[in-house]
Amino acid sequence: MTSPLPKISVAEILAQKIVRLSPAALPAVTARKCEDLLIDVVGLCVTARNQDYLGSALKGWDDDGPCTVIGHTRTLTASGAAFVNGTAAHGEDFDDTFEGGPVHAGAVIVPAVLAACERHHPDGGSVLIGIAVGTEVLCRLSLVAPKAVHKAGFHPTAIFGAMGAAAGVGAALGLSERQIVDALGIAGSMAGGIIEYLAEGAWTKRLHAGWAAQSGLRAALLARQGFVGPRTVFEGVHGLFYAFAHTADGDYGQLTADFGRRWVTDTLAFKPYPCGTMAQPYIDCARRMAARGIKAEDISEIVCEVAEGTVHRLWEPLADKQRPRNGYAAKFATPYLLASGYFHGGVGLGAFTASAIGDVEVLALAAKVKFVIDTDNSYPNNYTGHIKAILKDGSVIEERQPHLRGGAQEPLTRQDLIDKFRRNVEHGGWSAAQSEAALQLLAGFYQGKIDLSALRG
User: 379 - beta bridge partners?
Assistant: First the structure.
């Protein structure tokens, strides 16, 4: 395959716009969303600090250095800290979501930019612009060829995360236009992440955010030292989209057209439940059904209308989604999740223990859950929920959720996020004093020189 190379590439257009941005020029709502991201990610890192997968990740990274691993006394190199913190932040599937993607930005971008700035340029304003730019790039990339990356068998957060992290670190460290183009080009060769973890609930999805974070950081540092990457990394005949979406004919205007003037970052959703995003409206439907006094033993069958694009991750194989193999697999099993939400008034971190996923009552209800594809569903632009319960007496009860609670149409408040932070760090074993010290640090984090020492231990 050959085709004429463009005089100016997509990456070059993007880099021109990135270098013109400054922390002072960010809209107040965007800066506030970056504050929310920081609070949420730090809490998630702490809640995962004692989990077995994070212990393996930390021990497996033989790379000590000066940078903070949140919730731990051990310090690593910048790339090591980005990897472990990113893995922790994404590990419980409780992190933010961009509804149009879907992608998870905070778990990639915040660890990458924090580590880069702690090591190379400890300035709060630089962290702010880095997080804003990296998040925006990651989210906008997911709009270029919607659903195609997932359909091809890859995890969009992993693929686009490396690119977003390269852009975010590049902005934070003040790279030139040419260096940002090179960083994006280099990151394209570092991107990866298959979704085969779905088969048996393996741990690999958890490291996708961390791997993308450290990949983007390394790409930016290489570019800063003059390493050259392909400027046609996005639209090239062997570029990122051809490789991971099986098409190079995406809508690249979604990435560049109004970059820096309109911020899709402002619409980021924060999860109320630690599980797959598209399952969450179904949990809310189940909660409301239970609140109406509908008894599980009176239900003959539950039929849910679902978006076709969510089926391969959250609904099939149906038997495995009704009776998940382990706690991690349960996070992506809508029949189990809605049954758990029905009995417990929601889904918390305790819903994924060995005893919880073996709860006979929950599994009996989950076994009654089936699905039909709604061809008019607006996914991925909107995440909806629907439950139709057919009762043994022949009557039918329905519940619908028109949008994701915590998303753009019903956002969580700052206080909601602080409450979530406190619950998460308590779950991770931090004392109330450690929690309040961290919140005090984060409250003014983007002003002045940064010091992450209060986040260790």
Answer: none
